[in-house]
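Morning!

This is the sequence you dropped in the shared folder:
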Amino acid sequence: MAFNWYTTVGDIDGTTTTQFTRTADATYQVSPDAPDGPAHVWVVVRDQRGGVDWRRIDFEVVTPTASGGGGGPFGGGG
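The structure's back. Tokens below.
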């Protein structure tokens, strides 16, 4: 299996991975100065026999507030 990764915002290190492993072969990171708004990550999977499929992950890039709180995606904070 070959996995190819693409994104509209941020950087993917290791854009092609070729097998299932217990450790991450590709890492995704969004810069702190990335603009707020919608972003997408795609993975295209090829089985080396002509089969191909893909998935898109949609999410919002949001700048953390200066007041902190560290709520993350689950709200709350400290």
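Headline: Confidence is low (pLDDT under 50) at residues 74-78.

More detail when I'm at my desk.
O.
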